Amino acid sequence: MSPGGAGAGRITGAACLGMLAVGANGTAIMAALPTMRGDLGLGRAELEWAVNAYLLASAACIILGGKAADRTGARLVAVAGLLLFALASGVIAAADGAVSLLAGRTLQGLGAAFAVPGSLAAVSAAAAAERRSAAIGAWAGALLLGFSLGPLIGGVLTHALGWRALFGANALALLVAAGGLASAGRLALPPRASLLHGFDGAGFLWLAGGMVATIFALRGLGEARHAPLGLVAPLLLAGASLALFARAERARADPLVDLRLLARPDFLRPAGTGAVAMFCILPLLLYFNLDAQDPRGLGLGPIGAGLALLPLSAGLFGLALLGPRLAERLGPRRLIGGAMLLIVAACAGLAAASAARSLPGLGLGLLLIGAGLALPYAVAPRLALAALPAGQAGQSSGLINACTFLGGSLGITLGGLAYGLAGLPGVLAVLAGAALLGFGLARTLPGPARAPAAPTALAGTGRSP
Q: What is the spatial distance between Cα 395 and Cα 261, in angstroms, rounded to a whole number?
């Protein structure tokens, strides 16, 4: 299909619908998990893995998804990813226990790893040059809108129709989006040999193994005094896996990850700042919902918890749209540094409001945290991509996505340890500590003169150029 052809509008519309569904799924499940815990008999560890399975599968495969879009065709990869995500949503809707739930969430993560870069590349390729920036902006806006409204959508559907209907509706929207993309033109299947040609299987396995082992090691921190092997064994496994991954990548001419990118501070620092933002967002959504729907907490239902999170959604969505303009005016260093300090202060205020059971105080604290998180969420990926040559944009965007997903997974795990020890105030203390780390990273970012002006698309549960 030539850029700007008759199917360009259909591709953009279908991709936006698909990303709206993917973004909403990433946060809607947070509102449904307290109800799912009772229906499926889930423990706290299984609740965390219901989020981490998705994040780790996405983190491990997102780079592969971007390469597949380049090699086999963006629209084909996007359709395959959306269909896999829809199938996974159906598996979750029919789940009868933890095993089927976690299998479905892992498949959802795999689907997202292909749907996100594939759909963005399809939109970029289909749009005419003068419309490309607007089309990418619509794609990014749909994903961010779904991510922001997910808690309310999840709460309403869980209360009105049950949590299974939430995943059924998600599957239906994804099928419609996949159909729209598929019908926009002929889908040419690549030769079978090209699908696996040059695939870095060893690097992929070592990277995935290292990520999973790291999460198990962090989970072992809570029982390290009584069961030290639960910490030491996965920690050693993680170290060995990541060392073998580095060795495998250095030996390949076309590695899964170009390790030289990780040696570039102008790339690594903003990528780390974006990971800090996702580290804070996801555990706040999960553990606030658990606390809000606990009879010993706020005692709200799914709708009430979703409504309580609307200030967070408003701050996140509103400031994310303004973030790039503010960065050009103030510079990333001051903007993101100030945002991180705002998060620290808002976490303290939110903890006080939670202890007092003050709904206005909770609303104000969530609004400020959302505003603070939106700025690094919107600006950091642009900085990381602007630091590299255009020829490395595909791989670097995949690496930014992987860092973001991994940051969210680390946040869920460490937040779970804090929630078990001290409830929501403990989680907020962890988030404040992460924001202080983010402030330190922000001090190394460029000032106004070096801020990139080129627009870069953002993903709600991942980012791609």
A: 9
pLDDT tens column, 353-392: 998 888 899 999 999 999 999 888 878 877 877 777 665 6
User: What is the 3-class SS of 111-122, one letter each residue?
Assistant: HHHHHHHHHHHH
**Nearest Cα residue to 88 out of 21, 3, 5, 180:** 21
Q: Which of 220, 210, 318, 190 is nearest to 256 (CA)?
A: 210
**Cβ atoms within 10 A of the Cβ of 150, count?**
27
Per-residue pLDDT tens for 122-177?
Answer: 888 888 877 776 787 788 788 888 888 888 999 999 999 999 999 999 999 999 99
The first and second tokens of residue 133, run together, are 């920036």
Closest CA to 66 of 457, 407, 415: 457
DSSP per position, 52-118: HHHHHHHHHHHHHHHHHHHHH-HHHHHHHHHHHHHHHHHHHHT--SHHHHHHHHHHHHHHHHHHHHH
Give every CB contact of residue 9 below 8 A, 6+ residues apart in sequence.
Answer: none
pLDDT at 460 > cutoff 50: no
Asked whether the predicted pLDDT for residue 283 surpasses 60, the reply is: yes
Q: How far is CA 178 from the centre of its chain?
A: 21
Rounded Cα distance between 147 and 151, Å, is 8
Structural contact between residues 148 and 316, judged by C-beta atoms closer than 8 angstroms = yes
Contact 393, 463 (CB under 8 A): no
Question: For residue 368, with 0-12 CB atoms within 10 Å meaning exposed, 13-18 middle and 19 or more buried, which class applies?
Answer: buried
Q: How far apart are CA 72 and CA 188, in angstroms?
A: 9
Least-confidence region, from 110-114, 267-271, 458-462: 458-462
Cα 463 from Cα 41, distance rounded (Å)? 34
